[in-house]
Design goal:
alpha/beta; TIM Barrel; four-stranded antiparallel beta sheet; 28 strands; 37% helix; 16% strand; binds alpha-D-glucopyranose
Length: 661
């Protein structure tokens, strides 16, 4: 289905609109039935043309390129199933904020919750997944976030992120038809589907790469290929490395081509050359193909890396933003119900630019990787200074966009905190990072965690952290030692993390297995295809026998599962936790305590204070430090209980969280 075969429309004095009309007729579009398409195209025409020419004018073949783009959009619109077109219309009608009458975009729906999973590890196949939808519903999940499941590189494949067929479901997972059915089934149940577009690189056995290897000039131009080391060396001088331990350098020598190919991630992941308009057109076809399968939220993998320029870090360049804007504008013409999710693991000030660059839309949702890293920092230090200072400033987003918040995901935990804020919190940046690495790998005295260093860079001493939520919270070591107090504290840490991601900001997301407190899975070490990449330790296969224990009272699984379910259910009824609700980090009365206030944006409904204690001991929070809530009437909404008050202070137990409202 990968098609770049977009023929240039005939010329001969007809207007673009007439030409497109003729194309529509030739494609079997119904007369009048394409009004929505033309309306949407008309509205965005100028923006698409300007962005396109800012990126591609003057390129060879420039003349017919823009017309080909329009024809491609129309083709994809004609292919779009009526069911999805109806959903588009419905979502357009919902409108956007700040129009007070609008329900707002679907991805900002109050109470939206997400669950991230590998199909093979969670349910074997797409068919197996169908059977597990009730499990997700039981947990209260509304947005299902699939990790990559398209045909992928033979052998090592970076968890599916080395794609060899962007629109062909991996036969081991099922068929395209099954995928379409799953999307439909989820929609019928009021749920949504997120999936990846790994658009920075293809696998080196993608048909384009294979063609390039066998001398096809067009496909060679889809990648960054250099005959000798001159250009690669220029690039390397300023480019950081993503996987320094296992994939050092950013280029790979490909003997068949007698050339160096840019491979920022692994050597089998070839960076796509987005400065080539032919590649752009191919990828627009892929993007819209995904949309037409019924995917609601398209995750733009490694989006900061899209544009490369020697002499720069090759991250977050202005052209990368222009590409995302252009892709979004194209998607809005064909599939306006679809939203983009930015996977931009960069400084929060840079992440925000992928949501909105100066009033122009890019992505609508972004991973809040910074919140994840800050929560783990606060757990290790038992202090909330860095979390409060960073989180307070970093989470403000443009209108109609939102965060996806999580305690753990399939990737490592990076320690990309702002050095000045580390200093202001009273730590020395280099030493602080080393402390966190030692802490989460269990080396630091008194650490409860069983994680591993990921991608240690011998040159800089930098590294990141791997491990599941439960193991990093101390569950693995507590079970090994049989220490009941350690076990209780580990469970409370998991509860604290999930109570916070459900209340601080954004759409809370469970990483598959966290809801059952699954521990590190060490089987990857014996699998030659995985052994180099310890991120596999925190991607455990779902254990459905263990899952059964969620209904057995007194088990760890029952406790964690019901806690997360409760967080999700209670949160849904709290207007102050809506995606666009306001928040403030209040000055904390104690160094271990975080106090945040959240309030509905439109002033309706009351504020809720989120209080969290990162200490191993109970803490008292003086009522005088709590603003915005009627203390006499306040309860703990999460625990559904009156507040524990001593004297003039609210009492928080070890790792206690209170939603006070
Ligand atoms: C993204 C994925 C990560 C993968 C990388 C390369 O960052 O989250 O798992 O290794 O892209 O595709
Ligand atoms: C780096 C990349 C990110 C990727 C991660 C995988 O942080 O920026 O995209 O997910 O590495 O470890």
């Amino acid at each position: 289905m990968t098609s770049g075969a977009v023929s240039a429309p005939g010329s001969g004095g007809t207007s673009a609109r007439e030409q497109l009309g003729q194309t529509a007729a030739a494609l079997g579009g119904r007369p009048g039935g394409d009004a929505a398409f033309f309306l949407r195209l008309g509205y965005r025409y100028g923006a698409i043309r300007d962005l396109f020419s800012s990126l591609y004018s003057g390129k060879p073949g420039d003349g017919g390129l823009f017309e080909r783009l329009q024809t491609l959009l129309l083709e994809k619109y004609c292919e779009r199933p009526d069911r999805l077109k109806a959903i588009d219309l419905e979502r357009e009608r919902r409108g956007s904020r700040p129009d007070p009458r609008s329900r707002g975009p679907w991805y900002l729906e109050p109470g939206l919750t997400a669950y991230m999973l590998y199909l093979d590890r969670f349910a074997g196949t797409l068919r197996g997944f169908r059977e597990r939808i009730p499990y997700l519903e039981e947990l209260g999940v509304r947005l299902v976030h699939f990790m990559p499941f398209f045909r992928t590189h033979e052998g090592k494949n970076d968890g599916g992120f080395a794609v060899s067929d962007y629109l062909g479901v991996d036969p081991r997972c099922g068929t395209n038809e099954e995928l379409v059915e799953i999307a439909e089934k989820l929609h019928d149940r009021g749920m949504y589907l997120a999936a990846d577009l790994a658009l920075n690189h293809s696998a080196d056995d993608h048909p384009w790469a294979l063609a390039a290897k066998s001398g096809d000039e067009r496909c060679r131009g889809y990648y960054y290929v250099f005959p000798d080391r001159r250009e690669p060396d220029r690039f390397e001088a300023a480019m950081p490395q993503v996987f320094p331990e296992t994939a050092p350098g950013n280029f790979t020598r490909v003997p068949e081509m007698g050339a160096w190919v840019m491979t920022v991630f692994h050597d089998f992941q070839w960076d796509l050359n987005w400065s080539n308009p032919e590649l752009f057109l191919e990828m627009v076809a892929v993007l819209l193909g995904l949309a037409n399968m019924g995917i609601d939220l398209i995750r733009l993998d490694a989006v900061p890396y899209l544009w490369k320029e020697a002499g720069t870090s090759c991250q977050n360049l202005p052209q990368a933003h222009a590409i995302v804007r252009l892709l979004k504008a194209c998607a809005d013409v064909v599939a306006p119900g679809v939203a983009f999710l930015a996977e931009a693991i960069v400084q929060p000030s840079e992440i925000v630019k992928y949501l909105d660059s100066g009033g122009i839309e890019e992505c609508q949702v972004a991973y809040h990787a910074s919140l994840m890293a800050l929560l783990w920092e606060a757990l290790a230090t038992r202090k909330t200074g860095l979390l409060a200072a960073s989180f307070g400033e970093e989470v403000r987003l443009p209108e109609n966009t939102g965060w996806l918040s999580y305690a753990r995901c399939h990737d490592d935990i990076g320690l990309g905190y702002d050095d000045r804020k580390i200093e202001r919190a009273g730590f020395t940046p280099g030493m602080h990072r080393r402390f966190l690495l030692d802490f989460y790998t269990g080396i630091f005295p008194g650490s409860w965690a069983t994680g591993r260093r990921f991608m240690e860079n011998p040159a800089t001493g930098e590294a990141r952290i791997s491990g599941t939520c439960a193991s990093l919270c101390g569950l693995e070591s507590a079970l090994a030692s049989g220490d009941a107090l350690a076990l209780e504290l580990a469970i409370r840490r998991i509860e604290l993390l999930y109570a916070l991601i459900s209340s601080l900001v954004g759409i809370p997301m469970v990483f598959s297995g966290d809801e059952l407190a699954l521990r590190n899975d060490y089987s990857w070490e014996n699998d030659p295809e995985l052994a180099e990449d310890n991120r596999w330790m925190h991607r455990p296969a779902m254990d459905w026998a263990v899952a059964e224990r969620r209904h057995a009272e007194g088990t760890i699984e029952a406790r964690i599962f019901s806690h997360i379910r409760r967080c999700f259910a209670v949160r849904r009824g709290i207007p102050a936790f809506a995606q666009d609700a306001l928040f403030d980090v209040l000055p904390s009365p104690a160094e271990n305590v975080l106090v945040c206030s959240r309030r509905p944006k439109d002033g309706s409904g009351s504020a809720v204070l989120v209080l969290a204690n990162f200490a191993l001991e109970r803490r008292q929070v003086p009522c005088s430090s709590l603003r915005g809530v009627d203390l006499r009437a306040a309860r703990d909404l999460l625990g559904d209980a009156p507040l524990v008050i001593e004297g003039d202070a609210v009492v928080l137990g070890a790792y206690g969280v209170v939603w006070m409202g």
